[in-house]
Amino acid sequence: MTWIFKLSSSFSYIFEMLAACLVFTLPLKKRAHPVFGFLLGALISLGVSAFTGSIIRNDPWQAVLVYLIQLAVVILPVAFSCDISISDAVYGTLCAYAMQHFASSLYIFVGVWSGYYDLSRDGWITSISLLYYLAVYVGIYLIFYWLFARSLANQGTYGANFLQSSSLTVLVVPIALLLSLIGKLANGGRSDFMLNQVYAMLCSAFVLWVQVSQCRAVYWQRELAIQEQLWQSQKEQYQISRTQIELINHKCHDLKHQIAALRTIHNEQQREASLREVERAAMIYDAAVQTGNEVLDTVLTEKSLTCEQKKIMWTCMADGSQLDFLDPVDLYAIFGNALDNAIEGVQELEEPEKRVISVTVFNRGNLAILQIENYYEHELQFQDGLPRSSKGDDAYHGFGIRSIQRTVEKYNGSVSIHAEDSIFVLSIVFPVPD
Questions:
Q1: Residues 359 and 316: beta-carbon distance below 8 Å
Q2: H-helix or E-strand containing 316?
Q3: Nearest residue to 25 via CA among 157, 169, 165, 205
Q4: Are 272 and 290 in contact (CB under 8 A)?
């Protein structure tokens, strides 16, 4: 059965905009009852559209005013259904408008090209197939969702501020409305009109592409700034840790001499009590790790002391000389982040025998390989191939692993994560330079 659909330009526009807004709300954080919120906003939008559409006459400037009112009111479904700021709601609606205008321009362009759209009457010569109408709009909306809508949202929000929303308004509204109006008023003929539609499509797509590119640039700049801050913090922490370990080594060396001196005490009970006290203090020296790499010794010793304090068992078989080509701060950052994640993962385990961390560093061919293994209990969720943090801070989720990945990539290395049978394995592979 063939469906026949007669379009009303004013009323169909509001339905198209509501559908476009729905597309751009899909990747956003939702309120408690998003369906109810969207439907409430949609009903208000339809009511305003019915009222304003009924007063349109032949004055094109009056039509522009009506369309602007309708554009403003379709912000409501987005704001009512999504847990976002007003700036984000305006930003998402304007992006939806750019998509709707692209689809509308394509729809009319094909109609003019096929001869079914009469420029003199600014309308369709005959009723058109609903299937054709849906093919254009649904196809464009799906493509634009894949290319733009899901890429613009980051962790359920656009992160837009007033300046971004205002800038997008200046970009979208003149392109979508005023230029189209000029094209219709110019009466330059079929070729000029079709050229205007192509220009409108290109501008709409370009605006959205710029927004995606800008969002990605801001995201990476933000992550790089955070990483730089962490790098500086880790550099300072490394210096502090190195000083502490050196102090421990000197103290342990002195304790050996004190033990020898205490053996000269004649009172047997006093001597044995003093010896036991000094020996307990000297046991901290057993935590010192000797791998052949001073930086690796520092971070491993520091983390082994943390494990001892938290009653975590620790095994280490590491040939630190295999990692001599790494910058000291990078080496400290890699192991510091990786071991902090492992310690966090096992310290909450109820079974003491599972509070175990294994560290291995070895060479295989021209590859230096690092592996850190530990038990885990909670179900792991991955995003972009990285485990999400359990700390509840979405802004920094997985940043420790991501920081490791970035650092490893500086040396053309690779990071792989494997989690199976309650064992989490982080593997890092570096090509050893000649």
A1: yes
A2: strand 313-318
A3: 157
A4: no
